[in-house]
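Q: Protein A?
A:
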Amino acid sequence: MRAPAASSCRSRTIFVPVFVQPTSRFNLNSRRVLLGFESRSLNLIANVAAMASSQLRAVQTLTRNLRASSRSFATSARRLEASAPVTGTSETAAVLETDSKAISQAPNRGAIWSRSQKPRSTAMTGPRFEQTDFALQPQPYSAMELVHKVPVTWTHDKIVSCDGGGGPAGHPRIFINTDKPEIASCNYCGTPYANEHHRKHLESLPETSYPLK
């Protein structure tokens, strides 16, 4: 139990004088560092203040220039407004002249070409287009009506083939059954076919969709 006490006494006698010297040195060094930091911070503050004052001067000069330019722009705008009506009248007159000279759409025929039409002088009078009588308008034949004027092609075979004449104006070849007592037409070109065995029956009918001869 006595050995630890002796070791503790030795540690106290050893560390106390050693600990006093670095504290005094550290205090001196810290004071020097603080003084240097204070001097640097003061220099930095002075530099910032100088920069701020220079920027403030630049901003003041810029605002003065902007005020002067805005005043000059206002005076020039007033001058332009005062002289604007003189040029505006000439421009509007030119625009009106170009509008009046615009070419209107019209057919390249001076006279009428149908009984139901009217001359140009009275074209916009009377009933509208929706109210016109289409029975009086030109009515050309449709393709279906023209096909039904083609006579029947008689055959002795029960199956016939049709390709529309072949070539670029033709159509794919199809096969048509003619075994029934009726006129069978091509689904592409509408050409009619019938069997000779059913001729008497078809001729006895009061009306057929295709001419038999």
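Q: Protein B?
A:
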Amino acid sequence: MLSTFPDPHSTMGVASMAFVLRENLRSGVKSILPVLVLILYTILGALIFQWIEGDQETAEIDVLREMRERAIEKTAFELNVLKSKSPIEAYNYTVKVLKKYNEKVGIVEADMDNLKWSLPGAIFFCITVYTTIGYGNIYPVTTTGRVVTIIYAFIGIPITVICLYSLGQLLARVCRLIWKAFLRTTRVVSKDLSKKVEELGEKTNSDAGSDQQKDENDLSSFPVSILLLITVVWVIFSSLLFCYIEDDWNYGTALYFALISFTTIGFGDVLPSNYSYMILIGIVVILGLSIVSTTLSIIQEQIEGLAEGMKGDIDKEYLNALAEAKDEGEVAEAKASTALEGPPENLDVEAHIATMDPRSLDAVVSRMPLRSRILYNIMPASSKKALQKQSEDLVANLVEEELLKLKLAAGPSAPASPSSPAPPAGPAYETSLQ
């Protein structure tokens, strides 16, 4: 029976220990690598935005400071004429001058006709809470309001997730109907479209109902290009609507607000000021969130589906890569090296396979087509682990057969008689290679 733990005093044991340490280090680096990439990405973004926006902010502060200094000087100069006025005239004149000063420094008087906490404004606030956008233009200031906001968010966010999923399912059904009608009308004949027609067509056998229902519920069967087109159209339409509602917005500002809202970034730098349209804006934002989230989830599902499909083809891909390795002589070279050295007493099979055998998973993946290599790199960690296990099982079966042959070839042979000559080394070597 082969030992799982290598002998540290043997050459193969040292190599196996080095391989284990290298694999552990590689696994640790792979786990930390995304964090390091995110840190570098954050620093890079901070430097870029500081370079772009820093000078503009400094210029705005200088202009604002200069405007305030001029307003103070002008106000002080105008207040000096109060000495020649009566008390009532001086009071009225002072109020008038201070109002002008407030206007110059940007202090806006409260407007009772445009309250934030009106019913439309409160509805808009609720939408920003459970969609996690959080523009920041409407927020609670009382302790009770803050506590209720937290409780409301805990309840509303899961409901919103379910709602967005349901809207996404409805959107997918509508898009499928349009897609099927388009295919049947145009009679387009191509490989991809025929596949879609076959998937979306009606079944006539006894399992038609269940298969069709499964296909309708499987969003990954829908072409992403159609959803991307719908997303672009909805963003354009929403931007035009926002531009119509807000008189002081141009199309670029409206487009920026739409994209910031649909991606739930919600900086709060561009906000709607017409609170009478807040309900309409909230509905548009929710529909946009549903479309964008559905599109992103379908893209993720299709990537995972393609990656999972690779598991079904791993045997074929593995055998193809193995055949290619045999054609190039790598497998024979590995066998010859093992045969000359003889099977070690204490052998870590997995380390031995990975360090010496060109049939290891890394070697096989490197020989696969580009598409398969890309799918292998982007598949989730759980899928990679299952793929690794499947590959190791396949390799283990092949290697155990070879090790058995090597043991039989290197085993004690019958003692030669004095009259019979010793067998030549060449045939034994050839036997060990077989």
